[in-house]
Design brief:
The complex is a heterodimer of chains A (310) and B (396).
Chain A (H helix, E strand, L loop, with lengths): L1 H24 L1 H6 L9 H26 L3 H14 L1 H10 L4 H28 L5 H15 L4 E2 L2 E2 L15 E10 L4 E3 L11 H8 L4 H19 L38 E11 L6 E11 L4 E5 L4
Antiparallel strand pairs in A: 1-2, 3-4, 3-5, 5-6, 6-7
Chain B lengths: L2 H9 L9 H20 L18 H5 L10 H7 L13 H21 L8 H18 L9 H12 L19 H26 L11 H13 L10 H4 L3 H16 L9 H18 L5 H8 L12 E6 L22 E5 H11 L7 H5 L1 H10 L5 E6 L3
Antiparallel strand pairs in B: 1-3, 2-3
Helix pairs in contact in B: 2-5, 2-7, 2-13, 5-6, 6-7, 7-8, 7-13, 8-11, 12-13
Classes of the chains: A alpha+beta (310), B mainly alpha (396).
Chain lengths: 310, 396
């Protein structure tokens, strides 16, 4: 049964390979979606990848089928298989295909035999009461999380993404965010704490700023009302709303932040909420540029400016 | 336990040892205690004031169709977080949110104290888990996709589904293993840890190139965050970054972390790897703290794996050492099992010394030192295995 399942999976993989290559060779589709950046070697390398993948699959399929009945052997070859499946994706990366989900989809195609074999064996064993269904559930969900691109079924997900931070030392330091402006013209940063227990205020803003003014106004009013609600219990005491009960010992937000001194930013004293990008020189730490993306008049509830800058 | 269940424990040999009442009490205490700590530091009633359109920002909407949360669409997230209720019912008002919030704290507290020992059995922790999923569902649908709770939520879920027949927190009943499901539970706990880190390793192979593994500007990122803070920005990084910030970290740190994600599979095979991974990932998450991202929940989740049931109850049945009189610390392991039915485990060299430290209260302060990663790795290499050997029996 195991061998048959494995070879079924292998046939599925070849079929997926063909579909995948047809998809990638459709350069029109790729260029329309901005995914195809380099001319030239694409077709040749894809054919090479197809051959490579098929050879590796055949070799490992035989080996895996041979060792599948001994758990450790299966896991060992599964582990190697999982790593080898990533090699074609690395080639695609070099080609300049810059889409996380496409690369993961390609990986899924190459790693599919080991995924389908493991999953089917576990589910069948569970159905025949050979395996505890709870163990089966946890392992299958982990396997799906491992292989299926974009899988997200909270609290199960497919791991932290890979990303790289590159900092250009010639560029200035950029600080961006909302700022309160009071009646004296002083400015202070508005922190993520207004949306507690959520944390990613910028994501809210990136969505909000593309909406009509009426919607933006409702969203910004929510931020300002939250500041007013929390002012006496938290901000005036120098803590964020997370610290209302536990003070400075509170469990911090997912993105760490401190609470600025809001003593001059009593809710009645607020005049404007602005979204700014400030640029500072790396050596002198002096402000060299300030772009105001959005201005909201709090008293009159009116968006005075909203320009997409970044 | 069926034959394949037995096979599970062969595939996850690190779980194939007694899971005692005391360990389960510790597991509950750390897990649900962390959640109570987090709940006491959040105000869920704020969701009652959210405009509805801000509660419609699922991860797939935030990242877009071309990115890696493509399956995090509304209806699917709603199914897992019980938010399908809101296909029919309106969102709660702030007062109702307070009720849910307090209920979650109370349920977590009850689970710490009673575990599965009440008439409700698994119902109590399951209810706590469902309420937690429901509350955090509001984060998942308002542009927060992870919030450092996934590992501890998965552990809550695993704890809730296995019939463990554990005891109340202050129960003085004998420390024993009473059902075979406990080992399957432990296997699933280890699988959860591997399932949490291993896919992250795969993502490092698919999302970025191998060359990029060595080009992460980690030290500069830490410095930039520190400079931003100096300029009055509200994002925060601890000051001690300067002690760990060096350019060589850029070349060494990220690749080691990415490799460790793959090596996390070893957790299934060697229980001794737990202490090493615990320290490694605590260090890693402190570094993520230095670039402004807090994984306190995940760090606390690792503490659930500490085998506190060894404290004071060594289970040591025999051993030999030229320098320590092991006869003095041999336990009279009370058990109805015969010698042949018992499970024995042998510890040698450094591992035996560490195992001894758990058995005597006078040696407890030494435990962190003996497990400290650099010391431990060095000592394991240097210390001869024949210097000290002990044998422990199960406490069941």
């Amino acid at each position: 049964m195991l061998t048959r399942t494995l070879y079924n999976s292998w046939i599925l993989q070849i079929a997926s390979n063909v579909v995948c290559i047809a998809f990638f060779l459709n350069q029109k589709f790729l260029s329309e979606h901005g995914l195809y950046e380099r001319d030239g070697l694409l077709s040749g390398i894809l054919i090479f990848l197809f051959c490579f993948s098929s050879i590796v699959t055949i070799l490992l399929a035989n080996k895996t089928a041979y060792s599948i009945d001994t758990g450790r052997g299966f896991l060992k070859f599964g582990f190697i298989y999982i790593l080898l499946s990533a090699i074609p994706v690395q080639f695609i990366d070099v080609l300049g295909v810059d889409s996380a989900i496409l690369k993961r989809a390609l990986y899924f195609v190459y790693a599919s035999p080991i995924f389908f074999v493991s999953t089917l064996v576990l589910i069948r064993a569970s159905m025949k009461k050979l395996l505890d269904s709870k163990v089966c559930f946890i392992v299958v969900v982990s396997l799906i999380g491992m292989f299926v691109p974009g899988f997200y079924a909270p609290p199960f997900f497919n791991g932290f993404a890979g990303w790289v931070v590159k900092i250009d030392l010639r560029a200035p330091i950029r600080l961006a965010g909302f700022k309160f402006v009071n009646s004296q013209g002083q400015e202070e940063w508005m922190t993520n704490s207004v949306i507690t227990p959520s944390n990613f205020m910028f994501r809210h803003w990136h969505w909000l700023k593309l909406q009509p003014h009426e919607t933006i106004q409702v969203g910004l009013d929510f931020f300002i009302n939250a500041h007013s609600r929390y002012y006496f219990d938290a901000y005036s005491k120098g803590v964020s709303p997370n610290g209302i009960l536990l003070g400075s010992f509170a469990y911090p937000g997912h993105d760490n932040y401190v609470t600025p001194d809001y003593s001059n930013f009593h809710p009645d004293n607020l005049r404007r909420l602005i979204f700014v990008h400030e640029f500072y020189d790396r050596t002198t730490l002096k402000l060299i540029q300030k772009d105001v993306e959005m201005i909201y008049d709090i008293k009159n509830k009116k968006v005075l400016k909203n320009e997409y800058i970044w | 336990m069926s034959s394949v269940d037995q096979l599970t424990l062969k595939w996850v040999p690190a779980a194939n040892r007694p899971v005692t009442d005391m360990y389960l009490k510790w597991f509950r205490f750390v897990l649900y205690g962390s959640l109570i700590y987090k709940l006491l530091s959040r105000d869920f009633s704020n969701f009652g004031y959210y405009p509805e359109f801000l509660l419609d920002l699922y991860p797939a909407d935030v990242y877009g169709i071309n990115d890696y949360r493509v399956l995090a669409v509304g209806w699917w997230v709603d199914l897992w977080s019980f938010h399908w209720l809101h296909w029919f019912l309106p969102f709660p008002d702030p007062e109702t949110f307070r009720v849910f919030h307090i209920s979650a704290i109370v349920l977590c507290g009850f689970t710490i104290f009673f575990g599965q020992s009440t008439r409700l059995g698994r119902g109590l922790p399951l209810l706590a888990t469902f309420v937690l999923f429901y509350l955090w569902g509001f984060l998942w649908r308002s542009a927060s996709d992870i919030d450092s709770v996934f590992l501890i939520f998965q552990l809550c879920f695993v704890y809730s589904i296995f019939p463990l027949r554990d005891r109340r927190l202050f129960s003085s009943a004998r420390n024993r293993e009473c059902c075979p499901e406990r080992r399957l539970f432990m296997a699933c706990v280890l699988i959860v840890f591997v399932g949490f880190y291993f896919p992250s390793g795969i993502n490092k192979l698919t999302d970025i190139s191998l060359i990029e593994w060595f080009t992460y500007d980690l030290s500069q990122e830490m410095l930039d965050l520190h400079l931003a803070q100096t300029l009055g920005y509200y994002y925060y990084a601890p000051d001690f970054f300067k002690y760990v910030s060096a350019s060589f970290i850029d070349f060494v740190g990220p690749p080691i972390v990415y490799l460790s994600h793959f090596l996390s599979v070893l957790l299934l095979y060697k229980r001794r790897m737990v202490s090493k991974f615990l320290q490694f990932y605590w260090t890693f998450h402190i570094f993520t703290w230095l670039v402004g991202i807090n994984f306190l929940g995940t760090m606390l989740g690792w503490l659930t794996l500490i085998p506190v049931d060894r404290l004071g109850s060594s289970g040591i049945v025999d051993g030999n050492c030229r320098h320590i009189r092991i006869q003095k610390i041999i336990d009279s392991v009370a058990s109805g099992k015969t010698e042949n039915e018992r499970e024995f485990e042998t510890f040698e060299g450094w591992f035996a010394l560490r195992r001894l430290a758990w058995s005597k209260p006078q040696l407890w302060p030494l435990i962190p030192v003996l497990y400290f990663l650099p010391i431990s790795i060095l000592a394991e290499l240097i210390m001869p295995k024949t210097w000290i050997q002990i044998r422990t029996a199960d406490v069941g």
